[in-house]
Amino acid sequence: MRINEITLSSGIKSKVTIKQLLNRYFITSGKIDINLEDQTVSCSGTVQLDRSSNSGVTKLPVKFNYIRGNFLVLYSNITSLEGCPLIVGGDFHCSYTKITSLEYGPQQVEGDYYCHNNSLTTLSGIPTVIGGTVLLSYSPSLPLMRALVAKNIQFNKSNTLTDNIAEIMNKYAGQGKSAMMKCSSEILTLGKELGVDLRQNARW
Questions:
Q1: Helices (H), the chain
Q2: Position 203 in a domain
Q3: What are the b/e assignments for 79-105, b being 16+ CB within 10 Å?
Q4: Which residues constitute the domain of residue 129?
């Protein structure tokens, strides 16, 4: 079976077909529930895209709804988060992939949100609720203010610039867009002090 025969665009699937796709491309724990009305899968445990069999997968072959545990698609060739669950009760890992946007990702992550080591050009699509830490890779062209929805913001590589930006952002972490103006102002002031253009980072 070729990859393009099992994508979400292939039409309605039976429970047997969805279970076959889960077994072939994912490692799961806990109880699986398949809703044939919307073709989604929920799981009481953890779901991980299997690194040993996902090299040709650029799009998740199954659409998820609610995952009570962790959801991991890291170290893969996916180019989109389409198919990811709406809600993740644990941590969400989409690091080391081919994505450039967080669109189609979870709307709520109760644990940590790992999206570092991607070529993100925007944080658009980041959940409105992140219960823990968001871990990012720093780029001078990446608008950072959307990360303020998280309870804590960290960068995967530590240096004077990223440490200072993280310190400022964590003063306003968890406050979302309501804290953007104050946080942006402090980021811009930091840029002037360090002689670095941080105008893109200070954007929503």
A1: 15-25, 160-171, 180-194
A2: no
A3: ebbebbbbbbbbbbbbbebebebbeeb
A4: 3-194
21-70 pLDDT per residue, tens: 999 999 999 999 999 999 999 999 999 999 887 678 999 999 999 999 99
Residue 89 near residue 111 (C-beta atoms within 8 A): yes
**How many other C-beta atoms can be found within 10 angstroms of the C-beta atom of residue 15?**
12
Q: 63-67 and 40-43: which strand pairing? A: parallel
Which positions ≥6 away from 94 have C-beta within 8 Å? Answer: 73, 74, 78, 81, 84, 102, 105, 114, 115, 118
Give φ, ψ of 129 to 5 degrees. Answer: -130, 120
pLDDT in tens, 117-175: 999 999 999 999 999 999 999 999 999 999 999 999 999 999 999 999 999 999 999 99
Q: Against a cut of 0.85, is the pTM above it?
A: yes
Confidence of residue 11 (pLDDT cuts 50, 70, 90): low
Of 154, 153, 110, nearest to 131 by C-alpha is 110
Give the span between the Cα atoms of 174 and 76, in whole angstroms: 29
Task: Report if residue 204 sits inside a domain.
Answer: no
| Distance separating alpha carbons of residues 45 and 33, to the nearest angstrom | 11
Domain count, the chain: 1
